[in-house]
Amino acid sequence: MAAARVILHIDLDCFYCQVEQKRLGIPASVPCAVQQWEGLIAVNYAARAAGITRHMRVKEARQHCPDLKTVHVQTLGGSDGNGEEFGPANRDKATEKACLERYRRASVEIIGLLHRSASKAVIEKASIDEVYIDVTALVDEELQERAAAEGGGPRRPGLRDGTEGLHGFAWGSVVVGGPLDEGSEVDQRLACGAAIACRLRGAVREQLGFTCSAGIAGNKLLAKIASAMNKPNQQTLVPSRAVPSLMSDLPLKKLRNFGGKLGQELEALGCTTAGEVARHPRAVLEARFGMQRTAWMLQAVNGISDEPVQVKEKVKSMLAAKSFDAATSDVAAIKRWFRVLGEELCDRMLNDYAEHHRHPRTLSLSYRGGGNGGYATDRSKAGPMPRFGKDSPSIEAIADAAMALFQKATETLPCTRLALSAHDFAPAALTEQQGAITRFFAGPAASAPGPSVSPLPSTPAPSSSPSASRAQNQPGRAAFDKLFKGVRKSSLRQTSTEQPSGSGNMHGKHIQPADICLDGVDIERQRRILQDIRVQQAFAARGSDHPDEQQASDILTPQPLHQKRDQQELQRQMKSTSTTDRSGTKATHPNMSSKRPRLELSKTQPKLTSLFGRLK
């Protein structure tokens, strides 16, 4: 039987406010709110104590708290556009747009720290300020270490943080339903998970300066409920025995996926809490919502969920949008807005490239226009993303591409909304210095987060030989020399050397590159021919930017020599080594021997024919 899961839900406290307080040096004790135009989108706890709430108008909020400090979100398109001024005095909604990139970057820093602090955990980004973390593997490891340290005695959490006993993890934790059960293995696991949550929260506070709250439970649903129960800067643990009482009086609006239309329909049935839904006749629910949806609802309102924690950190699309209070038919103004939207999109693509080394391939335009009598329809049009420069297309290139899409679209004016989105991501191409062979060997790893593939090795020291001189003047030649140093090759004059058993050379034979001699062709040219055969076949076989590893191995791994294979087919293709008599029949070159070993051609045959045909 699998061990009970331990899931954490970590939620940043008043995240936007914390970012601005840290950036501007505003103490946490000072009432502070983040505004977007005339509305508040985030309020810290000091301001909440003064009666200020989210979505309150700024003017109304100042009546409740004259000392309230308001910070406008970053804006683009204005004279300064940095959002550092207190208040909206220099913000013009008609010429600027809000930008939340400052908070996205802070979120990336936090998630990166969590990954480094809990590398064996599975982390799922739920939103800009919250994550789910499956710490089951870490709990298993810590409990095993504890048991080993105690000589096989009872497993009790706290080994790595220096605490003792089941309740040593506390550090401000709140346990729903009273103390944990010392004899319950499930409670022991949750206690260990709470200790891990404390360490993670402490790392975020100490290294980045942000406080967060956490929920610890056996599934995602309960962990999210718990994290909101004792804010700010605390954590709440939900043992399994406390679930029925917790869910009985839980308002439906606090249960994920039970808001909106579903919540309204349940309220129409007289259900405002999870417990009321659980007690409602199943037949009535099935008649209203169907059997499948009812089954899901009844599990959720009883705190049951097997939804896994999944890694979701790469966005599938990036959107920059602007809605107008009044419809516009000014084409020049629309092009200006495309530059503003392009600026935001460029910044986001640049940051995404630095983190994930990928580029979007498609640019989509969405617009709301062509309305008559106040009615407008949302439409969209897509095209290729402009060519990338160093890390992203220029703002002007995106603006021009968007304008071209807009001009091709229908019913665009008057326009009340514009949006540009970048999507259809693919791994970014490597630089010229990295070369084709480096790109081939990077394979699937090139799309993984981390540093880009290192450049090819530098060229060797100058040599006096003509062939060496030619090699130095060709980019990537040193890498070719190193890469194909041990490739087995067939030749018209072959020297075989016996290799020790187990040396890795198939059939105990190895042919050195220097053993090749094609009549009338110098050694350097021969080497390039053989390299080109391998490289062209490799890129043809991979079928995409990132070849299958087995294909790469099959193509570039030294091939076996077969002593009794007929070489007549190879001889006919190598016209430089064959002659034709007057009757039109081919005579084999006197130095040829059908008993000589040959290269295993497999799928190389067509490429070989083409390459040697060009040597004539």
UniProtKB/TrEMBL annotation:
It is found in: Nucleus. Its main location: nucleus. GO terms for cellular component: nucleus; replication fork; site of double-strand break. The keyword Chloroplast does not apply. Gene3D superfamilies: 3.30.70.270, 3.40.1170.60, 5' to 3' exonuclease, C-terminal subdomain (1.10.150.20), DNA polymerase, Y-family, little finger domain (3.30.1490.100). The keyword DNA damage applies. Residues 492-504, 570-594 have a biased composition (Polar residues). Residues 7-259 form the UmuC domain. GO terms for biological process: chromosome organization; DNA repair; error-free translesion synthesis; error-prone translesion synthesis; response to radiation. InterPro entries: DNA/RNA_pol_sf, DNA_pol_Y-fam_lit_finger_sf, DNA_pol_Y-fam_little_finger, DNA_polymerase_eta, Rev_trsase/Diguanyl_cyclase, UmuC. Residues 446-474, 486-511, 540-616 are annotated as: Disordered. Keywords: DNA damage, DNA repair, Metal-binding, Nucleus, Transferase, Zinc, Zinc-finger. GO terms for molecular function: damaged DNA binding; DNA-directed DNA polymerase activity; zinc ion binding. This is DNA polymerase eta. The lineage of its organism: Eukaryota, Viridiplantae, Chlorophyta, core chlorophytes, Trebouxiophyceae.
